[in-house]
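**User:**
Make up any protein.

**Assistant:**
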Amino acid sequence: MSDQEKPIAVSFTNIHNIITRGLSTSIDGVQKVMDSQIINAVDHKGLLLYIQALASVLHSHHLTEDEIAFPYFRDKLPGAPFDVLSLEHRGMVRLLEVMNNALANWEMNDQPEVNLRHLESALITLNDIWIPHIRVEMDDFIVKADALLPMEECVRLVAAFAEHGVKHAIPHPITVPFLLFNLPPPERAAFSQGMPAEIVQHLVPVVWKPQWEAMQPFLLT
């Protein structure tokens, strides 16, 4: 079965890869700041924006699963561990709260060393949960989803997932570039096809660029 015949699996693989790279890059960035390898104020700002975008995109992705994907497939895949996955989502929300608090305090230069340690710990713990979480999700849910439905319904669902995910990933001037530029160019081109041309061709490269360009050292641009 080709990727064109597996739109749900491809869609979830892309967003999972975006978040996985986001976590790895964030952990590496925070550790470099702690080791004084990143001392430039612009790069500090870029890392702050990058992690803020990561937190928003991750939370938005889980909302899409809990509010659309899991309810839709619950009766179609009765053996899938939807309750366990949703429980893990709630656990990750608590870690995102720790991250966001640490980010806010770091931005205000309030006990930066303490808050960087809190941020590093939350990111590492989140990553340790995330990797096995998406493995179970892929094996017990996503790889089976496309085979259950006609292609037209799969495509409709992917569009609904994308619309819901982007809507709740805010602020868009940093989250949309985060989504696009944590994928290599071939996957990015396919991923962006689900977005309005105005966003990809004008808002991201022109209107929004002053708000997200500090993130460039951490992106695949």
